[in-house]
Amino acid sequence: MSLSLKIRLRPVRFAFIVRPENRAKLAEVFRVTTCLWGGKYNPIVPFFKKVPDWWDRRGHRFENAKQIVDGYLDFFEPDILVETEKGIANSFGFDEQRVIQLSDVLERQGDGEDRGYGLSVVDVYRELYQKEFQFVHRKKPKIVNVKAKKNPFNLFGSCVFGAFPTTTTLEYFEQNYRDVFDPENINLTPKSFLSLYKTGCVTPLRIGQMNIRVRYHEHSDLTLFVLDADEPRDLIDYWNLRATHRQVLPIPVQWLKILSPYCKSVINKNYRPLPGNPHRVMIRTTVMFSRSIPESEIDPLFRKHVAPDDVNAVVIQTWYPPIWRTTPDFSARTTRPTLETSEKSLSLNPDPKNKAIRFGTLSPEFCNRFGGEFRWANVINLSDWSAGDEIATTFPCNYRNPQFPPFGMALQSVLPTTEGLVLLSKYVSSDEYWELIDGTNAINSWFKANKISATLSDGGRPTQQIIQTLGGFWGVTRIAHPEIVKLLNQMSRRPISRSMQQAEFKNRVNNAVANDRWRRKVFETLVERKVVALGLELRCTKCASWSWYSVDQLDYVLKCELCLKDFDFPITSPTETSKARWAYRVIGPFSLPDFARGGYAAALAIRFFADVLGGANRASTTWSSGQELELPSGKKSEADFILWHQRKQLLGIDYPTEIVFGEAKSFGKEAFGKDDIERMRLLADTFPGAVLVFATMKQAEDLSQTEIDLIGGLAKWGREYNRNRSQIRAPVILLTGTELFAAHSLDETWREKGGKHAIFVENAMHPIEVLTNLADCTQQLYLGMPSYGQWLNDKWKKRSIRRASKAKTSGDKE
Ligand SMILES: [Zn+2]
C-alpha cells in the first residue's frame, strides 16, 4: 500500500462579505486586508437580499440574490468568512467557528499574541528587512505609500495600492511599514498614478504578497477596466477581477481624458501576433466598462478617449464576467488562481492495521512563532497508487461546514475543496496524524454524518471482494468480457463441483480473448489472483461419482462428498483421466450464483467510472459497493454502487465532486423494474443533483420496451431544472454491455462502434467524460430521447405558443 501526498502552503483565504453600497465598511476591508499576508487575493463578496438594478446592464435576471452570493462563495471557496455586519453571513450555512468579525481580524496593540487571524504583514516586513533591506548596498526597489488627498479618489487609492488602518491600536502596521522600508509618500493624482504604473513601484498591497507564487487559471489578455473611482460597487468588481486575472489595469473614468494617450499606447503596444501561432492570430486588449457606466456613455467615451488607430486592436466588453455562475463545459473554464509559497511531496506507507499516516505540515519560514487562529493553510492532495484502490482519496466538496472526512485524531476539521483537503494551521510545523479509510467505509460514515443509516448489502460484499481479489481495476479489466463472465458464472452453477477441467478452462478463456490487444494474460490473472483454485477431480471408488479436492486437501485417503465414504487415491494410475483429472474451481465471491449475486455488473460499473471513462483525463473516484440505506424520512433505499467522482484539472483547480448512485444488473430479462426506478428517484430527492446510473451487462437491443420506458421516464424527470441549485435535478446515465465490457477507454470503444456513438466521441463541445454529457448521450443512444438541447428548445417553443395563445385570448376579451 503506497500513498502519495502533495502538500502546498498558501495564505488563508478570507472572504469579506459587504453590502456594495457601504463605502465606510469597504474602506475598512481594504485597510484590513492590506495587513494580511496574501491580502490582495482575498475576495470581496457583494451582499444583497434583492438583486440590484445595476447588476445586469440589460436587466437579465439569470440568478436570484442568494444564488449570486452563493456563486461567489463557491467560486472562491473561502477558508474564513469575515462579516462587515454582525449576522450578515447567517444564511450561508458556514461553520460558526470560521465566521469572524471585521474588527477582530487584526491583532490590536496591547492584545495578547494569540489574537487575530491569518498571518500579519508585520511578519513579512521583518523577513524582508532581514533578508533584503538591512544591507545598504543592495539596490532597493522604489517603495511607496500612496494616499489620495482629494476625497473621491481615497477609496480608489486604497483599493488599488492598499491602505493602512488609522485606529490607534492598529497604527503599528503603517509605523512598521515606514520603519522598515522608509517609503516615499505619494499623493495620488493622474500623473503619479501613471508613473506608479510605469515604474512598477512596491506598494503596501503588493508587498503583502511577497513570497507567494500565483498560478492563474484564465487566459485572457490585458484588460483595461474603465470604472467610476467613486463607486464602491465598481471597486469591488475591480478587486475581484484583479484577484483572478493576470493583467487588469484600472482606469478611472474621471481621469479618462488625461489617461487617454497612455491607454492608446498600451493598446498599441499590446497588439501583436500570438507567439507561435501560424494563423496570424493577434493578441488584443479588452476594454471593459464597469457596471456603473451607463450604456449610452460607453461608445462616446470609447471613441473619444480609448479607440486606437487600428480598431482591431481592442475588444469592447460592456459586461462584467459572471464569476458567480458555473462556466458551461463548452467554454474555457475560469477559476481562481492557486497560490503557493512552498510545497512538498511525500510518499507514505500507511500502517496496514488502521491505514494511519503521520506527516509534518508546512509553515511559512518567516512567521512569528506564536500568533492567532487560522494563520495559514496547508492544501493536501492524496493519491493512492496501491493496486487494490483501497484508500478513499476523493471526497464530496464542502468548504462551508464539513462533517467529513473524519481523519481520526485531526485536531480540527479538514475542508474538502476543489483544491484538495485544506487544513488551517495555528502552530509552526505541526504534525498531523490521519487515520484513512477505504471507500466503502468512507461513504458509509458520510451517510451517517448525513443522518442516514447505511449497511453493506448482500450484493455489496461480493462486489467489494471481486475488486479486491482481482487487485483493483487493473484486474477487473481482465474479466471485462461477456464470455469470461459467463464462463465463471457457468462454473458456479455446476452441480456438485463448481469446477472445470484445467485444459478446457484455459482454452475457453484464451478463445474468448484471442487477438485482443487490450486483454493479455487473462487466464494467468484468473489463476494467480485466485479467482479459481487448482485441484483434482477424483472418482470415488465406492459410488463412482466425481468430487473436487483442492491441492492442499489431497491425501492418500479421501472422503467422498456424495456417499461420504473413504476411498483411496489412485496412486497406481494418477494420470488416468477416468480416475483423476486436474480442474479449476471458482472460489470466494466468484463461486456465488447469479453472476456473483450481481457483483460482476457492479464491479464492472465501478471500474467504468474509475478506469474507463475519461481515459487520459482521469477523474479521481472513491467507491463503495452496494449499501442499504435508511433515509432521514424513514424510507428505505438501496444502491448497488455509490461513487464520489471528481474530474481533475491538470495544474489547476479540480471540478466539484459529484455523487453517483448506481443500480447494476446482469443479463436478466426485464431486469430493471419499477422498484429500482423508485429507489433511485428517492435518492435523487435526498441528494439533489446526484447522478443516477443504470448499468447492465446486456446489450442495448436486449433491453425491453418496459425497461426503456421506465428509465426514460426517470431521465425526463431528471432533466427538469432545479433553479435553487442552478443545475438539473438528476442526470440519468444508462450503461450497457458496450460500456461495461469496454476493453480500454470509452472513447476507443465508442469510436470503434461507429455511427452515433462515434459522433458523440468527436463532439469536442460536449466531452463524454463529463457526466451530464454522458447522461445526455446515453439517453439518446439507448432510450430514444432527443438531445437535452433539443428537448429544452421544444419546451420553450411550446411555452411561447401557450403564452401567445393566452395573450390572444385575454386580448380578445378586452
Ligand atoms: Zn462416493
Major β-sheet, in short?
6 strands, mixed
- Shape verdict: elongated
Total number of strands: 35
Mean pLDDT over the full residue set: 91
Residues in helix, %: 25-40%
Class derived from helix and strand content = alpha/beta
In spatial order, strands of the major sheet run 22-29-30-31-32-35
- The value of Rg in angstroms is 33 Å
The number of helical segments is 25
Spatial gap, N to C terminus = 78 Å
Low-pLDDT runs of 5+ residues are: none
Q: Proportion of β residues?
A: 15-25%
Bound molecules: zinc ion
Structure description:
With 814 residues, the chain is α/β, with parallel strands linked by helices. Among the domains are: 3-8 and 337-449; 218-334, Cobalt-precorrin-4 Transmethylase, domain 1 (3-Layer(aba) Sandwich), CATH 3.40.1010; 481-591, no CATH class; 598-783; 790-814. Strands 22-29-30-31-32-35 form a six-stranded mixed β-sheet, sandwiched between helices. It has a five-stranded antiparallel β-sheet with strand order 16-1-18-20-19, with no helix packed on it. The chain has a four-stranded parallel β-sheet with strand order 3-2-4-5, with helices on both faces. The chain is elongated. The mean pLDDT is 91. Bound molecules: zinc ion. Zinc ion binds at residues 540, 542-543, 545, 560, 562-563, 565.
